[in-house]
Design goal:
The chain is mainly alpha-helical and 220 residues long. It has one domain. The protein contains 7 helices and 2 strands; from the N terminus they run αβααβαααα. Helix 1 runs antiparallel to helix 2. The longest helix is centred in the middle third of the chain and has 26 residues. The chain is globular, with a radius of gyration of 17 Å.
């Protein structure tokens, strides 16, 4: 069945590349730098979380101004928080974690460890972790799914989802090969849900949980 074209909801490939560069170019560059540096451990603090929040807010503003100038419909980018969507987000998060566990199981060492980059949150308060998770989860899913995946649907769902997943992978390479596989699995669940439903809030909430739950339970 041919998809219904909504005026202002499509991106050209050039626009998609520009938005990707604005939103994620800096993170892709620093991620590749970590790869060259041998995958150093990732350490988070209150200062780094505040810095991350400010950077993402500035980048979001720049991207939104560009999209507005390109007459891209910005109204669907508001996640519309509500309880039922949050409950869906919990289910999406659980499904994404399970899939990520399944795909990384073959890499588990004999001692039960998984060769992924270690995360340290010793210098970060729970308040800053939650604040960063809310901004980061919203920022990433709004632009990865609400803009890129939605805007590229005219090129086919597989292309739209694949482009979004590729960008997601590129700025998570700092987590190492196994970590990247886990991120892809997690992102795949969120992407499939969004492309099938068009609902942004559940995937945003799932991502927020993904940033908070490992910290609360002391996982890396």
């Amino acid at each position: 069945m041919e998809q219904t074209r909504v005026p202002g909801s499509e991106l050209s490939l050039l626009d998609a590349l520009v938005v990707s560069t604005i939103c994620f170019g800096l993170f892709i560059a620093t991620s590749f730098q970590a790869v060259v540096g041998g995958y150093p451990d990732a350490e988070f603090s209150d200062a780094s979380n505040v810095y991350g929040i400010l950077i993402e807010l500035v980048l979001a503003l720049c991207a939104l101004l560009y999209l507005h100038a390109r007459r891209f419909d910005l109204r669907p980018l508001y996640p519309h928080p509500h309880l039922s969507g949050a409950l869906q987000g919990v289910a999406i998060y659980v499904a994404a974690v399970v899939l990520a566990w399944v795909v990384t199981t073959p890499f588990v060492a004999d001692d039960g460890s998984v060769p992924i980059v270690a995360f340290s949150f010793e210098g970060a308060s729970l308040a800053s972790v939650v604040a960063f998770a809310m901004v980061n989860g919203t920022f990433e899913e709004v632009f990865l799914l609400g803009v890129l995946a939605r805007g590229l649907k005219g090129h086919g769902l597989l292309f739209a989802g694949g482009f979004s997943l590729l960008v997601r992978l590129l700025y998570h390479t700092y987590q190492g090969p196994v970590g990247a596989v886990s991120v892809l699995a997690f992102g795949l669940v969120l992407t499939v849900f969004y492309l099938r439903t068009g609902r942004l809030w559940p995937v945003v909430f799932a991502h927020i949980l993904g940033d908070i739950v490992p910290v609360v339970f002391g996982e890396s």
